[in-house]
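Retro notes (design track)

What went well: tokenization of the new backbones is finally stable.
What didn't: we kept losing track of which sequence belonged to which structure.
Fix going forward: every design gets posted as structure first, then sequence, in one message. First example under the new rule, 172 residues:
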């Protein structure tokens, strides 16, 4: 498979113009395609452990946090609380997650992994490391670090843009 030709170098202040925007040269499109590839390959390996994406991702996130709630997990995973509740219902039915109401605020539900959930969550990091390493197989260590820096910079730019747009909306 050959890679698409590089887009023409930008003129002016932006890298993209509406008249020349093509998916194969869109950073967003390419990042989404990479994420889909990573998720698909991780799903295939984790299916051997009877885990789907909707299950292994919350398990993994809960395993990384000492305390998490349904609402904070939904925010972290960028999903709506109703979808998160359904996923947690399935995890609870499998005996992997336990919900505990807060003693100080009954509206708050804390999440914890059961021993079985901890064992299932422990299967995720090796699979993710394997899949990510496969996607980075011909990168040098310097290229890998550069990619991380560039992605962090894009995230920071996106956050600055969000704050700027929020300030502009509040000024109206």
């Amino acid at each position: 498979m050959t890679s698409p030709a590089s887009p023409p170098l930008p003129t002016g202040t932006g890298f993209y113009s509406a008249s020349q925007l093509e998916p194969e040269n869109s950073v967003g499109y390419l990042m989404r395609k990479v994420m889909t590839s990573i998720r698909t390959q991780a799903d295939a390996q984790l299916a051997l452990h009877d885990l789907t994406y909707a299950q292994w991702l919350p398990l993994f996130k809960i395993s990384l946090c000492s305390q998490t709630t349904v609402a904070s997990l939904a925010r972290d995973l960028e999903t709506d609380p109703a979808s998160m509740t359904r996923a947690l219902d399935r995890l609870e039915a499998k005996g992997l997650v336990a919900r505990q109401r807060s003693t100080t605020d009954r509206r708050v539900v804390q999440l914890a992994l059961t021993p079985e959930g901890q064992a299932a969550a422990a299967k995720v990091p090796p699979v993710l490391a394997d899949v990510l390493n496969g996607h980075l197989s011909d990168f040098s260590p310097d290229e890998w670090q550069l990619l991380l820096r560039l992605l962090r910079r894009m995230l920071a730019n996106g956050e600055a843009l969000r704050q700027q747009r929020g300030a502009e909306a509040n000024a109206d």
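Added context from the reviewer: The mean pLDDT is 89.
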